[in-house]
Amino acid sequence: MASSGFSPAAPPVFNGERFHIWVVKMKTYLQAFDLWEVVNLDAEPAPLRANPTVAQMRQHADERTKRHKAMSCIQNCVSDVIFTRIMACETPKEAWDKLKEEFQGTERTRQQQLLNLRRDFENMKMKEEEIVKQYSDRIMVVVNNIRPLGEQFSEARIVEKVISTLPERYEAKISSFEDSRDLTTISLTELINALYAQEQRRASRLEEHQEGAFQAKAKPTSSTFAQKGKKTWKDKSRYENTRKRDQSCRYCKRAGHPEADCWFRPDAICQHCKKKGHVDRFAKTKANRGRTNFSNQRLKHE
């Protein structure tokens, strides 16, 4: 009998979905109250012998009551919609078999489901964008759908499936496993944790490498600053000179020369005669004219 101090959680309620999960939970729930044998075997308690004792009578009554307790558990662990399908059943085994037949299918249906699930299991491969834990979760979903249908799936078979369908990036880790121990003795949890640790180390190294490359690219050297500064001042001076040449002179109203070099400035000084009012070009012209006139007059006298 169940211990008087045991208080199980609330019973699972079946609403028409995920029957294979509800079956496992419900079986455990009935076992906790020592009621599973009543549902599974559906055996009537042995009749009382002549002149039974009080203890025998009490035990017989408890055995008969178990059937009603099991029936009550099954009825209260399904939704109202599902209850209408088993309300005509008189024994807990009859109600249990009714639910299995409707939601788990007949033997032929179960064999077809099992065949499809086996095919899915055999065709599964790890995707490049997946991590190993995501892949193992996908595998276990299929395995957990196969097991309730009567297929025995050993852990060694699942480990073999994972190892044989891993991408090439796990080849070194698998080789180290093969050299150090027998792969048939390794558990699925141990394998997944070891491969996940390798993924974490690879991701950490990749992140450090990317961060170092980014810092090296973002940090300029002193020579870079000098070159950039030199180039900037040089380009700035060239830009200023170009901009000044493009501006019109306020004295002659022409472009192409700075105002300080304009010949038409009122304060311009002739470099030939050192006087204001004309520029060097005109002074040289006047001097040439004077020398030419003097030479002509001399020729006439001669």
Write the layout of secondary structure elements.
Blueprint (H helix, E strand, L loop, with lengths): L18 H14 L3 H6 L12 H23 L3 H7 L5 H12 L3 H17 L8 H15 L8 H10 L6 H10 L7 H31 L3 H25 L33 H22 L1
Can you walk through the features of this model?
- This protein starts with 18 loop residues before the first helix and ends with a helix.
- It is elongated and about 160 Å long.
- It has helices at residues 19-32, 36-41, 54-76, 80-86, 92-103, 107-123, 132-146, 155-164, 171-180, 188-218, 222-246, 280-301.
- The protein has 12 helices and no strands.
- By secondary structure, it is an all-alpha fold.
* Contiguous runs where pLDDT drops below 50 for at least 5 residues: 229-234, 289-302
Mean pLDDT, nearest integer? Answer: 77
Largest sheet, described in full? none
Count of distinct structural domains? 3
CA-CA gap between termini:
161 Å
Structural class: mainly alpha
Considering the chains and any ligands shown, give keywords for the structure.
302 residues; mainly alpha; 3 domains; 12 helices; 64% helix; disordered C terminus
Task: Give a concise summary.
This protein is mostly helical and 302 residues long. Helices cover 64% and strands 0% of the residues.
